[in-house]
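A reminder before we start the practical. When you read a complex entry, don't treat the lines as separate problems. The point of joint prediction is that each chain is placed relative to the others, so the output describes one connected object in space. Small molecules and nucleic acid strands, if listed, are placed in the same frame. In the example below there are two entries. Take a minute to note the order of the lines before looking further.
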Amino acid sequence: MRVLILGGDGFCGWPTSLHLSARGHEVAIVDNGARRRIDRELGAASLTPIEPLAIRLAAWEDVSGRTIAAHDLTVGRDFEALVALLGDFRPDAVVHFAEQRAAPYSMKSAEHKRYTVGGNVGATHDILAAIVESGLDIHLAHLGTMGVYGYGCAGAAIPEGYLTVKVETAEGWTAREILYPANPGSIYHLTKTQDALAFQFYARNDRLRITDLHQGIVWGAQTAETRADPRLINRFDYDGDYGTVLNRFLMQAAAGYPLSVHGSGGQTRAFINIQDTVRCIELALANPPARGERVKVMNQMTECWRVRDLAQMVSRLTGAAIEHLSNPREEADENDLVVENRRLLALGLEPITLEDGLLLEIAEIARRYAHRADLSKIPCVSCWNAERAAATAPSMGEVGVGVMAAE
Amino acid sequence: MRVLILGGDGFCGWPTSLHLSARGHEVAIVDNGARRRIDRELGAASLTPIEPLAIRLAAWEDVSGRTIAAHDLTVGRDFEALVALLGDFRPDAVVHFAEQRAAPYSMKSAEHKRYTVGGNVGATHDILAAIVESGLDIHLAHLGTMGVYGYGCAGAAIPEGYLTVKVETAEGWTAREILYPANPGSIYHLTKTQDALAFQFYARNDRLRITDLHQGIVWGAQTAETRADPRLINRFDYDGDYGTVLNRFLMQAAAGYPLSVHGSGGQTRAFINIQDTVRCIELALANPPARGERVKVMNQMTECWRVRDLAQMVSRLTGAAIEHLSNPREEADENDLVVENRRLLALGLEPITLEDGLLLEIAEIARRYAHRADLSKIPCVSCWNAERAAATAPSMGEVGVGVMAAE
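Here is the predicted structure of the whole assembly.
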């Protein structure tokens, strides 16, 4: 099939583009380089040395004999160009990664909040409106997040998008299925819940075929395709804004830096390996909803872990120390989490579980590139509100790693 | 108290500004003239001859001896100016009308959809982020819509924002209170549901005090204050995009044009008179939620009517004919609607009900200005999707009123 990947130069978008190309699909990328621009803004960089997109694409052609076209346009701004591209390329499916995806970045300042809301909600709405304008029956697969559900609903497994509830009617308490009530934990997560409402609207009003993949926290960096050539290497973020928890731990261990656990570490989160991410997207594209069907929501995660248990595992494997820091996020210190993920398993996903061998492989990447790390970028300095900022001020006010580590 | 009115030159914003000023509050208006610009875009105009904002404000000073300051800035774009204004004026409350408020306009084209999403979601987020930036404990009152609830939930009254449901947990079916599941019927309504999520987030994360008023369809045009001088007259929209159903019927009757009922007219909607709108806002400002409290949602409506019953009432009063047209909207042809509105009644609202005397007074306004009407602007030409456009094509393709009337 023909697949257009919005945000195809990013952490998930790049390996997805290669995976779908390797599997014989005709792939084209839309990317405006926003993620690389943010690296420059933050003075941060991928731990791994990623190549410019043009070199990546040339390398892929060398390695695979397959070409991937790239289009530099901003989804959410260049609307006419997007409509024209849909008309020219006539994709069977569009995969939508073209959003700012870091919760801490979204909370750094009013400008970062505004950028995230305007960019994400605008990009999602533009692709929906563009599909309607194109008149084509394009399947849209969007990368959402488990975080839209919130993490406060102890006692019941989180279903795949829709929740059966009973409501009181004239006939007594009657079962209804509703979109799971959103409880976003950051501006980034808020935008994903706003996206979800747009998907519901366009699926109903224009009968668009839409899949929303509620993804867990991604760990790992490489896939079969990104390993095929050094020029294809995927990005590996470790900074306080874009680094995700397990990858950060592995990099911190490699750099001899104590593992940063914020609060008690009792936060339980859902996880998925990057290789499974790309497989899930392929499965989602192979199994679209029918026209007129409601939005198909699948939980794209394979296991749940408590943050302090992850830290202990990495500490046991590597000997790294663990350090408890105050939590800059407005969130519960402890939560349970049970998630249903039967739909992707039923489609054939065979999960890569978080076991020692693979962890060590990733730790090895972290070690190989540890010399590239700027340790001053490790601390999480983005606070969720004034109270959290005040609580973390003693360490945030200081510059440099030593002070953070000594807190 | 000091009150900043965003969108204070509009249909609801203007009479609200005058009402609050008359009641002794210090009022300032923010308005960028967007609604008047849209009139020019549509080649439409208020049936009543409204004055430019500067003349309105000078007239109000003549009549009342009170001044209202006006600031020409775009909420959703001029963020720094908005933050500075909050710091200078130090309002106790902000009333937020600064959104594109017509469902048909929001569905006219991809550009109108994009304008509505970007403008409304951006404006709402900007005022929230600006209040956080200001560091002030400002109460935000937002004009939402009954339409966020959708109209498909027969059998249960629509509560005020929150719905008690039972969810299945390890302990069996347990009661929970959730935000009423959104079911927006247009892009305009979608943006209000996206706003609602932003309100929830900022109330929880930053402890902002927020009231969301879910308003019914407003009828009438004048209030005690706008009647005080011809230069204070409020706008009266009758065009196919901005005219609301009852005011349109009254104007159609005055102009000798058949009353346009789309579909069977079985749509039941909630209504409120413009005089009650301004009273409700005053009541909401006098009764804000506490800091740390969840968003306070109140249903700002006073009665429900079926569209065809309204048409029959106006026909009986005026002798106008009724004409059934195909429905350009993607919506149920018939629905029941029961709405709770106890909160504003408990605060002291004494509803103006839709009875003959007041209807005739509004019909009189319509008659007085009927010579200003451009009948070619009456038809609803905005279709919700390709199917609805195809179904209405035979009439939409023709220009002029005669053909519409003959359908």
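Discuss with your neighbour: Chain A touches chain B through 53 residues (CB under 8 Å). What might explain this?
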